[in-house]
Amino acid sequence: MSTDNALLKEYSQREYEHGFVTAIETDSIPPGLNEDVVRLISEKKGEPDWLLQWRLKAYRHWLTLEEPSWQNVTYPPVNYQDAVYYSAPKQQAQLESLDQVDPAILETYEKLGIPLEEQKALAGVAVDAVFDSVSVATTFKETLEKHGVIFCSFSDAVQNHPELVKKYLGSVVPYSDNFFATLNSAVFSDGSFCYIPAGVRCPLELSTYFRINAQNTGQFERTLIIAEAGSYVSYLEGCTAPKRDENQLHAAVVELVAMEDAQIKYSTVQNWYPGDAEGRGGIYNFVTKRGACRGNNSKISWTQVETGSAITWKYPSVILQGDDSVGEFYSVALTANRQQADTGTKMVHLGKNTKSTIISKGISAGRGQNSYRGLVKIQKGATNARNFSQCDSLLIGDRCGAHTFPYIEVRNTTSKVEHEASTSKVGEDQIYYCRQRGLPTEDAVNMIVNGFCKEVYKELPLEFAVEARKLLSVSLEGSVG
Amino acid sequence: MLTTEAATFEDEFTLQGERTASDPPWLRDLRTRGWERFTQLGLPTTREEEWRFTNVAPLASRPFTLAASDQLDTADIEGLIEQASLDGGFHRLVYVNGRYSQQWSRIDELPHGVILQSLAESTRERQGFVQARLGRLAAAQHSAFTSLNEAFVDDGAFVFVPDDVRIDRPIQLIFLSASGPPVMCHPRNLVYLGNNSRATIVESYLGVPGSYSLTNAVSEIEMADSAELDHYKLQHEQPRALHVAKTQVQQQSLSRFRSHYFSFGSELSRNELNCVLDGQQIECILNGLYMPDGNQHMDCRTRIDHAKPNCNSFELYKGVLDDQAKGVFNGKIHVHPDAQKTDAKQSNQALLLSDDAVIDTKPELEIYADDVRCTHGATVGELDEQALYYLRSRGIPSELARTMLIFAFANDVVQGVEVPAVRQHLESLLLADRGLPNV
Question: B366, A403: Cβ pair inside 8 Å?
């Protein structure tokens, strides 16, 4: 085991691969939060009055809320007056082709391995790239338009499709939902908007790359996806962030609405800067994600691979309102060094014959703390509801932690709820077996971990599955114990 | 905290203070500390995570008083005690409204060095020992009910088993509530098992029909190296009773603790069982069965702290819920940073028999060591249609088939009972309750 320990050490000292800063001018407002800031954000974006009022309502409500403390993570108190609530790349002229995009931004994408020039050539992926808070380039618009799919930045949607935004904004995650969602509602900068008309199967996988760039800029993304009756969409969200020494707050909100027979598949690969080996820096990722299966036979599926962030705190949830609707949650969460994650899901069964599946794989290494927290709630009307939950934890190293806090609340006899959880370490015999066959320990662990996560990977779109596997291997390098 | 709640208990606390003025100062100080803590904490509300699913305030703020045990109908009591005594061979300590009653108790010859007496006696006779231990394991800092118990600490059972002594005959503690007006009692039990000793303790809680009571019991159990304890708790309180209890167990190396909890009675019950495995090679087995019906609410909480390496814990809790009953299960396994080679299994299964029954379950694992094997499972469901069909296809009427399946489900836990008299009692109870002939 001594070599393993050496590897462990090596791993824990690994530096973040994507740590670089793009020097471009940004148009930021001074740090701090008050009503004027909210008004300023709204004004800068030229928003209609109803949206400003909504933001103000949220802001006033936020003032009455206290930051939650029940989650199983620790971090120094966040000073909300220190953060900058708006930052947009300065060069914001209307862009018609990629040539007009700031070369520095393009370079950033290249470092991330997503050269925009090649995006169009990339099979089936339209990228709405969000650089800090404002979308700067969108591809494949024409193909989507042909099918009637609206896929644009949130700001554009407010300008061009106000009726849809007004109808659905806050309908799944109300402005008063929780501390961070309320904060987001008050100051959200931009995000993605997606509308799939009835009966349309979205021809492309929609994808957004988020990236936090300007120092001290809290990112408050807002994503809204509406799938009308009988439609289908697969949405990919992936992120990397440059290395920073100060903690950056990220409080996004994602709302999904699935009408009758509609399907939404939402996949995330999250690889934000996790802080250095001592836990300095790193992103605070406090996200509210929720989907509503409004119509009968609708389906919402969350898949997430969480390897980044100093603190991850999110519970992608599904409200199963329609009869026979299905909710799924597949998650791989990795915490290494001093990363902390408190993540899981909520499945609220309201309709008849609703089904939900939860597969959660937690991997803790170094001094990482990984918690699964989930709620399965079967309401009285949810006749014949079914749930299956499985949360497995893998421990690498003796100073890490894995925790499970499942809540099961059942109000209906005909429902069946099953929950299983297990915790174990990477088996020494498994490693021994692989080494015996000439595999280095590290590869063996990678193999074992990838096998452990396989159930989740198979739910990811192909491109993402490859990336996720690579990401996990990179994150795990040398962490063998 | 509402003023009415404080007033409910405050008058009683003052009265008790006058009555016990002659008690040793340390004991009076302990009560004062408990009371002060209770007034700070107040009764828990559902806003507290620990009490999220159980709203105890409306019941606990009824005007309960401490009862004197002399104003009772002895014929009633005699009948009940006979009924509660499972076996003539048991050592029996009887408490009426929380106060030791010599009249009904029966302690036979005990092995040398064993002490079996009421806590009130032991605080007089064994001050040093009791003073050092009272409130040591069951810390009152964070629990309103434990502080309340501490404020009213007075009587209960005192069990001391010296090194290398094994008591073969079970010790039964019978706690009886009897009342006209609502009464409360706060029994405190102190159990000490020396090295390589063995004992079986059966705690029975029951009430005179029609009584209206609050039982707030705290047991502190200390087990030295290689000690072995079988602990049974049978909760048969009256339908209008509020039963709150905490059992705190501290285990040393190689000790074995087996707990069997059976909850049938009371309007609202909450049982907390906390085990700290503070040594190596410890075995801790927790079994439980809760069967609420009508409007009963039963809250079972367990917590196992694996503080040292190489210990095993095994937990099985089952619930059968009927009518508008509500069940809550919260089981926590906490593996501390150095507790390597821990093997912990936890399972909670609930059977819902009625559409209005409600179950909230929250099995938790908190693990800070890597070389461990921990699993938990929780299931909630109704009777298996296929099993019912199988039985019916063999000519068994559906009602009987249901009864058989329920019995089989619950009997899993009963099978773990090793004392024949207790097992028979439970089996016949399960069967009679479901209208099946005795086996």
Answer: yes
Q: How far is the C-alpha of B55 from the C-alpha of A63, rounded, in Å?
A: 29
Check B350 against A404: CB less than 8 A apart. no
Which residues of chain A are within 8 Å of residue B361 when distances are taken between CB atoms?
407-409
Task: In whole angstroms, give the CA distance from residue B1 to residue B323.
Answer: 33
What whole-number percentage of chain B has pLDDT above 90?
63
Interface touch A399/B363, C-beta < 8 Å: no
What per-residue confidence (pLDDT) applies to B61? 75
Q: Looking at the partner chain, which of B49, B355, B376 has a beta carbon nearest the beta carbon of A421?
A: B376
pLDDT for position A117: 42
- Interacting residues of B397 by C-beta distance below 8 A, sequence separation 6+: none
Calculated CA dihedral for residues A152, A153, A158, A160, nearest 10 degrees: -30
**Strand, helix or coil at A231?**
coil
Angstrom distance (rounded) from CA B316 to CA B344: 11
Question: Which residues in chain A are closer than 8 Å to B366, comparing Cβ atoms?
Answer: 72, 401, 403
For A96-107, how does the pLDDT look when each residue is reduced to its tens digit (9 = 90+)? 555 555 565 555
Mean pLDDT over A257-261 rounds to 95
Helix, strand or coil, per DSSP, at residue B205: strand
Residue of B nearest to A415 (CA): B381
Look over chain A and give the mean of its residue pLDDT values, rounded to a whole number. 80
Other CB atoms within a 10 A radius of the CB of residue A60 amount to 14
Please name which of A356, A376, A303 lies closest in space to residue A333, comparing C-alpha atoms.
A303
pLDDT-based confidence at residue A474 (cuts at 50, 70, 90): low
Interchain proximity A410–B359, CB inside 8 Å: yes
Interchain CB contact of B370 with A (< 8 Å): yes
Mean pLDDT of chain B: 90
Asked whether the predicted pLDDT for residue A439 surpasses 50, the reply is: yes
Section B399-406 average pLDDT: 89
CB contact under 8 A, B381 and A417: yes
* Total-model pTM: 0.81
| Beta-carbon-side half-sphere exposure of residue B414 (alpha carbons within 13 Å) | 22
Backbone angles phi, psi at A223, to 5 degrees: -120, 135
Whether residue B358 lies within 8 A of chain A, CB to CB, comes out as yes
- Tell me the pLDDT band of A118, cut-offs 50, 70 and 90: very low
Predicted confidence (pLDDT) per residue in A13-29, tens digit: 555 555 555 555 556 67
Q: Which of B365, B366, B406 to mutate to test the interface with A (most CBs of A within 10 A)?
A: B365
| Beta strand spans in B195-306 (E) | 198-207, 213-223, 228-236, 242-251, 256-263, 268-277, 283-290, 297-306
Closest residue by Cα to residue A128 from A154, A163, A161, A99: A154
A78 contacts: CB under 8 Å, gap ≥ 6: A67, A247, A249, A284
